[in-house]
C-alpha cells in the first residue's frame, strides 16, 4: 500500500513534468527534498526530547494509574466480554490511559500486552475476538488529550500557539472514537446475524 | 470567544509544564533525572524519523514541483469542496492510516508552506493528532498474537479514519470561528 502511494507520487510528478516542462524543477526537488528531510529530522530533536522528558515525569508520578482508575467504568461498558478483574482489563486500561496522555511509545507495548491477555480468553486463536476488535477500534481512533508529537512539531515551526491543537484534537478524536465504537458495535451485530444464519 | 481561546493556548504550555513538575514533586518523583531519562529518547526518535522524512519529503517535493499537486487540487476541488475538505490536505488524509511518519512529513510540509498557525496548518495538525496509523496498528496488534482473520476490524478502522478527517475539518472550523452557534 505504502509502496503504491510512494510510487504514485513520483511517477505522477515525473509524467506531469513532461507536459508542464518543469523537469528541471523536479530534478532540483529530488536533491533538495532529501536535504530538507535530514534537516527536518535533526531540527525535531529539541522539541521531541522536551516532551518525552516531561511525559516521563508525568508517567512516574502515576498519571497512567490515576487515569486508569477513572476509565474503569468506560472500559466495562466497552468490553462486556472481559471479566472486570481479569489481567486483560488492567492492560486495556493502561493502554487507553497512555493513548489519552499521548505517550505513543508506551501505548503500543501496553496494547500488545492487552492483546496477549485477550488471546487467553479467545476460543478461536486465529480469529479476532469481539473484545480484540473493540480494542483495535479504540486504538486506531485514539482519543487524545495531549498530542505530544504534533505540539512538538508546532513548536519547532515557531507556532505562536503550539498547544492550540489540544482543543481541536480533543473534539475531532472524540468524534472519531465515538464513530469507531459505534461502527464496531454495528458490524459486530451484522457479523453475529450472518454467523447465526450460517 | 476567539480571544479567550488564544489566551488559553498561550497559558497552556507554561501551565502544563508547571503542573507536571509540581505533581511530580508532590509524588516524590526525582523530576530532574526522570526528565533527563525521558528526554534521552528524543534523539533516537528523531534519528529514526530521518529515512521516513527523506523518502516522503522527496516524493512530495517531486509531486509539487512538477505541478501535479496543483492539478490534483484542481481535479478534486468539487468533491472535496462539497465535503469541506481543503484539497491541499487530501494527500495527507489518504496517507494518514497507512504511514504515520509519512503523514507527519506531509504535515511538516504544510507547516513550511502555510505556517503551523494557518487554517491549513491547524487542520493538518488536528488530522495528524486525532487519528492513528490504522494499518500499522492492525498489523502489529494482530500479528503479535497470531490472529490471521481480522473480521470487520479493518473496515471499522478505515471508516472511522475518514470520519476523523471530517471531524478535524469541523473542529478547526469551530475554533477558527467559521461556524457560529
TrEMBL record, chain A:
- The membrane-spanning stretches of this chain are 39-58, 131-152, 164-187
Q: Which UniProt keywords apply?
A: Membrane, Transmembrane, Transmembrane helix
Protein known as: Nucleoside recognition protein
Superkingdom in the source lineage: Bacteria
> Which organism does this record belong to?
Alicyclobacillus hesperidum
Signal peptide bounds? none
> For the Nucleoside transporter/FeoB GTPase Gate domain, which residue ranges apply?
43-152
- Pfam families membership: Gate (PF07670)
TrEMBL record, chain B:
The residue ranges crossing the membrane are: 7-26, 46-65, 158-179
Q: Name one GO cellular component term.
A: plasma membrane
Task: Pinpoint the Nucleoside transporter/FeoB GTPase Gate domain residues.
Answer: 47-147
Which InterPro entries does this one have?
Gate_dom, SpmB
Alphabetically ordered keywords of this record: Membrane, Transmembrane, Transmembrane helix
Entry keyword Transmembrane: yes
Pfam families cross-referenced by the UniProt entry: Gate
Q: Which domain of life is it from?
A: Bacteria
Q: What is this protein's record name?
A: Spore maturation protein
Lineage of the species this protein comes from: Bacteria, Bacillati, Bacillota, Bacilli, Bacillales
